[in-house]
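User: I need a structural model of Methylmalonyl-CoA mutase from Nocardioides marinus for a docking pre-check later this week. Nothing fancy, just the predicted structure tokens so I can convert them on my end. Input:
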Amino acid sequence: MTGPEGALELAHADDAWTRADWEKATAAVLRKSRRMSEEDADSLVWDKLTRRTLDGLDITPLGTPGSLEGLATAGRPARAGDWDVRALVEAGPEKQLNEAALVDLDGGVTSLWLQVDAGADLSTLLEGVLLDLAPVALDAADPLAAAQAFLAHAGDTDLATGTNLGAPATADAETLAAVARLARERGLLGVVVDGTKVHDRGASDVTELGWVLAAGARVLRVLEAAGIGAADAAGLIELRLAVTDEQFASIAKLRAVRRLWARVLELSGVSTGSTGAVSVHAVTSRPMMSTYDPYVNMLRTTVAAFAAGVGGADSVTVLPFDAPLGRPDAFGRRIARNTHHLLIDESHVAHVADPAGGAYAVEELTDAMARAAWEALGRLDGADGADGPDAAVLEEMVAATVEQRDREVATRQRPLTGLTEFPNLGEELPAREPYAGWEGVRSYGAAFEAMRAEAPAGRVFLATMGPIAQHTARATFATNLLAAGGVAVDVAGATDGPEALVAAYDGQSVVCLAGADPTYAEWGEAAASALREAGATRVIIAGVSTSSTSGVFDVIDDSCAMGVDALAFLTRTREALR
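Assistant: Understood. Predicted structure tokens for Methylmalonyl-CoA mutase:
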């Protein structure tokens, strides 16, 4: 239909909704789920549904046109087409890794990220790899030696666009300059500013961005001092960032880094237009992955890869789901590369330039992240920036983020599926060959993984009170909570009083009462006393104290409910089991 001046209208006037209409409809849903009361104003839905990142940035439930007022959108990704599917080939036995790399390339991988140990045989590692078709990004313990060996192996081959000799931004000035000159002579990339290194230690998105900018600026300074102008130096650099299963934050990070890098280059006297004129390599996060229930990592990496594609990454690496367990096998590598194909060929994610562009909430988050990262750059760049990011300031920023994340993971405000939520104590982890690929990585669930790695001294008796329908909710909660610490339970089943509980009890030192509040009020104290007399040394209760159940809470040793510090609770429980 058309409007009064012939303009196309996409909806009938009766279908136009206001912000107040949305708030009213959303509030009705939240009241049904008891997340809001009848007395709460409808506008409270924004507070209830807005999530906050570790950097204190708000991710709103709904974007509005007002979100874009006064925002800059420079640095939007320009890629429209398939991203470069980059497989990681980690250091190890050259012949074995060469076979894996060739299988990856035959399976649709388009470039290789090659980690190289000192003295590695590149001829064996790259045997059969068509270097004029498949770019190689080096990541070496000795960057200059690796670059020289790689070029010697390549000979006169016209190396594929995107090939990177891979000097790290943290390398000494002499090494950076030497590798940069080699890259310049061959028309290659020569330097990688690798933000995943600080991400792996626990850095937030903003800290990672700030570090990348500070390290990148240091590269420009070093190369300029070595006689390579800023414009030429900028053309040698690739930025590498981590993407997680928090998709909106990851999309915003990749969009923000182009805007930020364009500003760095502008201040360096380099004109780049609106794209930032830089190659961005996105890698699915290592710390977000879990050793336990590792198959969930497939879902995490799929969401992260989607975010990388939508955020405009030029190259994307999906780490195999089994990488935390050891050297990934053929199945893990196949799933990793097929994740790309699913997103590119079946879902067509790569076929739209900047699909998130113009989305109110994403643009707002991108702007907020860019501004916060620019502030972080100011903190990290030091007095003159000559030595790169300030290590002491970085350590302080990372430590603050780690402390906050650990607190949120411990209280399960930041759940980790298969680890802190819905763990499977009966799983058999797939065996993988040990390797050094996970060194330096601080897993988000490290404390819970450490618990799972050490078997508890015993099981907990789950004293389920009353019929199944009455105790199942709290029994399920307690079972899953204890399992997050590696603790299994023996369940009493349906019971009708203390005698039934004692009859099912089998001498466990720790018991956990699980039932409904009316049951607690009626015979909770008697149940706790009976189980103590039967041999229990520690009595826990699932739930929170109310006026009607205060009696039983007065005679127990510990309690657990939503919001409890799960890590502290599980530590106490495991100690009691000893």
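Before docking, keep this in mind: The domain at 453-577 is CATH 3.40.50.280 (Rossmann fold).
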